[in-house]
Design brief:
By secondary structure, the protein is an alpha/beta fold. Among the domains are: 150 residues, P-loop containing nucleotide triphosphate hydrolases (Rossmann fold, 3-Layer(aba) Sandwich); 76 residues, Helicase, Ruva Protein, domain 3 (Orthogonal Bundle). Helix content is 41%, strand content 11%. The longest helix has 19 residues. It is globular, with a radius of gyration of 22 Å. The chain starts with 43 loop residues before the first helix and ends in a 6-residue tail after the last helix. The relative contact order is 0.12. Bound molecules: adenosine-5'-diphosphate and magnesium ion. Adenosine-5'-diphosphate (ADP) binds next to helix 2, helix 8 and helix 10.
Amino acid sequence: MAVGVEPGTPRFEGARREAIEIRELAPDGYGPHADTLGLVGASPVIVELGRRIAALAPSPATVFVHGETGTGKELIARAIHANSRRTSRPFVPVNCAAISETLLESELFGHVKGAFTGAVKLRQGLLEEASGGTFFFDEIAETTPAFQAKLLRVIQEHEIRRVGDNASIPVDVRVIAATNKDLKQAIAEKRFREDLFYRLNVVPLHAPPLRERKEDIPLLAHHFLARFNQRNTARRMLTHGALQKLTAYDFPGNARELENVVEQAAALARNDEIEAEDVSIDGGASASLDTPPSGVRTLAQEVDKAERRAIESAMERNDGQLEKVARELEVSTTTLWRKMKRLGLRKE
Ligand SMILES: Nc1ncnc2c1ncn2[C@@H]1O[C@H](COP(=O)(O)OP(=O)(O)O)[C@@H](O)[C@H]1O
Ligand SMILES: [Mg+2]
C-alpha cells in the first residue's frame, strides 16, 4: 500500500476508494486524540526525542526524520500530527518507493481532463483534498529530482499544479519526510535536490537503532506482547530467560523486527509462559524474510523497478501512445498493458 488516508474523516473514506486503499489506524491505538506520544522507551535518546516531538508538534515546521528501517519513523510522524493543531484534518502517509512516479503525481497533485491516456475527467489530488493535514513522505530518497521540484513548490510556495494544468492551486499542508538513506550522499550524486534537502531539514529528528538503546527492548517487548494479548484475548507472559535472549540480540530490523519476534513467540509458545526457546532469533531467515535489511531489494523488486523506469520513459518519449511504446520496447501491446497494470502504471 502506498498512499493512505486515516479513517475518521468520512469525506475521504469512499471518495477515493477506487484509487487509494484506506489505511488502517496503527493498531497500537494511536489516534488523532491520543494525549501521549505513543513512543515506548525509557532510554535517554528516546526521552529526548519525545521531548523534541512534543515541543515541535504544534508548530507548522517541516520535519525530516532519519533512521534505519523499523526504528519508528512513521510512528514519530503520527505523534507529531497527533499533537499538532491539525488533528481534525487527515494524516496522509505516502510511501514514495512503492508507487510509480506517474501515479504518485496524479494521486498527490490531481490531474486535468486529458492530461494523459485514461485521464477522462478532472480529479483533485490528495494534497488539495487533504489540505490542512499532515503529509508523511516516507522513503523520500527514492523520488526523482523532477518530483522533488514539485514537492519543493508545495513547501515553499504552498501551492500545487494539477498534472496537465498551468494554474496553481493553494494548499496548506505540513510536510514530514523520512528516509533510511544518506541524503548527503544522494545530493553529491545529484539524485537529491539540495534545495529541497535544506527545506526539509528545518527540524531534523533521528530515530536511533534499537541496538543503541538496549534498555528499551524489554519495554517494547512488553508493549508488543500486551497488544498481542489484547488482540487475541490471551495472557501470555515473557519469562526472564526470554527477555534475556531478546536483549542480547542486535535487531537489525529494529522495533519492527522485535514486534515480529514477540508476536511469533507469543503465537507459538506452548503455554502462557514464553520461554527463551520459544523466541526465534538465531539470525535465521524467519526474522528477515519479509523485511530485507535497509537498502536491500529482492531481485523481483529490482526487475520491477527497471521495468517501470523503461516503460515510463518510453511513455514519455511516445506521448503515452501504447502501440508506439510497445514497438519501441519490442513487446506486444497486451504484454505492455499487463505489465503496466501489474506495476501500478495503469488503474483499469
Ligand atoms: N518507540 C516505539 N514505541 C512503540 N512502538 C514502536 C516504537 N518504535 C517503533 N514502534 C513500532 O514498531 C513498528 C515499526 O515502526 P515504524 O514507525 O513503521 O518504523 P519505520 O517507519 O522507521 O520503518 C510499528 O509497529 C511501530 O508502531
Ligand atoms: Mg516505515
